[in-house]
Give the backbone structure.
Amino acid sequence: MRYEEFRDSIRDELRRCPEGITWKELKARLNLPYERPCPNWVERLEDEISLSRHAVSGRAKIWKVVE
């Protein structure tokens, strides 16, 4: 999977879930092949699609697109 495909699929799914979802939920919904997201790609997502990640409980973070 190329970065652009990853970015677009993450962006589209997060737009469908404005309350946000965890990485684990994103991975399952999109059938992503990665155990953890690449830190470099996450930084790019923060810049390119205004990705926001906030801890809610334990180590889980909620991913959202801030528009």
